[in-house]
Amino acid sequence: MKEFMLLIRNRIDSKKTFSPERDQAFLKACEVYIERLNKNGNLKKAQPMIREGKMVSNAGGVWQEGPFNESEEVIVGYYHILAKDLNDAIAIAKGNPEFEYTATARIEVRPLKTKEETTAYIYPKGG
């Protein structure tokens, strides 16, 4: 199995029109999705992200801190998963409840590098 990161992207205000009942239904659907991934051995970690923060940059030795949401779309969460290949990871991403509950969701599916080929450095797995 290979490692992939699913970066969940959506509008920063994608849930503002949710009623409390719809919000609870969405959260429950996410819990079911997470449990299914866990049961199938695909899940390494998953977490939503608070929709506020800062973007840090350094251009020419000058540090800048600015808003992280320069556009309407932000990363609202991630799933660190195991999948056979990119197609399998895409199939897993398509099952995410974000698509069922919002029309503006997108998921970036990215393979993770676990080892540097030129130096043989193996990246830490974390805990």
What does this molecule look like?
With 127 residues, this protein is α+β, with helices and mostly antiparallel strands. It is built from three helices and six strands; from the N terminus they run βαββββααβ. It has helices spanning 20-39, 86-94, 98-101, and strands at 2-11, 43-48, 54-59, 62-67, 73-83, 106-111. The chain has a four-stranded antiparallel β-sheet with strand order 2-5-1-6, covered by helices on one side. It has a two-stranded antiparallel sheet with strand order 3-4. The longest helix has 20 residues, at 20-39. The radius of gyration is 17 Å and the shape is flat. The two termini are 19 Å apart.
Largest sheet descriptor: 4 strands, antiparallel
3D shape: flat
Q: Which secondary-structure class do the elements indicate?
A: alpha+beta
- Share of helix, binned: 25-40%
As residue ranges, the low-confidence spans are: none
- The chain-level mean pLDDT equals 93
Q: Write down the Rg.
A: 17 Å
How large is the count of helical segments?
Answer: 3
Relative strand content: 35-45%
Give the SSE order as H and E letters.
Answer: EHEEEEHHE
The number of E-state strands comes to 6
